[in-house]
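Quick bug: Lysophospholipid acyltransferase family protein output formatted oddly.
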Amino acid sequence: MHSPAVLLDDNDAVYDYYLRHQQNRWKALASYAVLARRFRPRVLFADGAKEQLRALIRAGRPVIYAINHLSTSDPYTVAATAWRSPLRAKIGRVRVLAKDELFVDPEQRRKVDMMGGIPVFRGKDHGIRAVNAAGQRMMDVCAQRLAAGDHLAVFPEGTCNDVDHTKVQSVGSGIGHIAFRAAKLDAAPALIAIGMNYGPHPDPAAELTAADVVGGVAYLRTAILELPPRPGDIARLVKDELQAAVDAAVARY
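Here's what came back:
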């Protein structure tokens, strides 16, 4: 299938493509293994969470992972976390929401596509009104991929936290709408919050380098198996769960 340029004006073609896109699983496995060796996250679990995740994967239950956002290297540390956890079995079937600018450079796009990226046109980049239709389509595509058995990783804060790495910033309603739409498709996704921590930040506004995030902590909470019926309530639950995961990651760094 032809790979269209990731442009807002052509978002229908873009999302038609990413509704069906499937990366090469063997290349993805090899790349995730390389990232695991490079970033070496310490993957920790709440009591019973590891066994629960294994059971969800065996059952074929779709899962949405909500992850705090601290660095532009976060997608790579999340990939490394997947390799070092039961999620290794789902590599090749995990979608990751990523801002559209990461799909511009061909080499960068190759890497993001390999990781299962789905582009997001953000209001802060293009204007809220301009991205509305694309945002609706993106949420539909995510819901359909969940209904097809994929897992989905989301950074619901929407941008890197340069205020206080110990406090989850505002969570938009998008993750709630995705879960709501997936439920309408009888997908019934579970929710798992993953808290990332890379140690003390002397200057929260300073951008973390790839070297800064090596050896960080990824803490996985137990899954929420029954989500609230309304998108706004789901988003509020996500923020609470994610803050609890971040608290645990900070405490265990």
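Actually, after a second look the formatting is fine. The radius of gyration is 17 Å. Closing.
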